């Protein structure tokens, strides 16, 4: 799996997940429950991962919809 996106904003994660779901690209969010450890202050980023084969397609989908993706 490769990192597609890293953000502190849960709305971006939700938006990106919906976009990828619409294109039948599976994704997995890491560090989603880290807020329990950080006290819900949102300082630690969440990472969205996709399969190696889906990385370029996922990048195109997110970029086309104005979402900044990891390099």
From TrEMBL:
<dbReference type="InterPro" id="IPR018551">
    <property type="entry name" value="DUF2007"/>
</dbReference>
<dbReference type="Pfam" id="PF09413">
    <property type="entry name" value="DUF2007"/>
</dbReference>
<dbReference type="InterPro" id="IPR011322">
    <property type="entry name" value="N-reg_PII-like_a/b"/>
</dbReference>
<protein>
    <recommendedName>
        <fullName>DUF2007 domain-containing protein</fullName>
    </recommendedName>
</protein>
<feature type="domain" description="DUF2007">
    <location>
        <begin position="1"/>
        <end position="64"/>
    </location>
</feature>
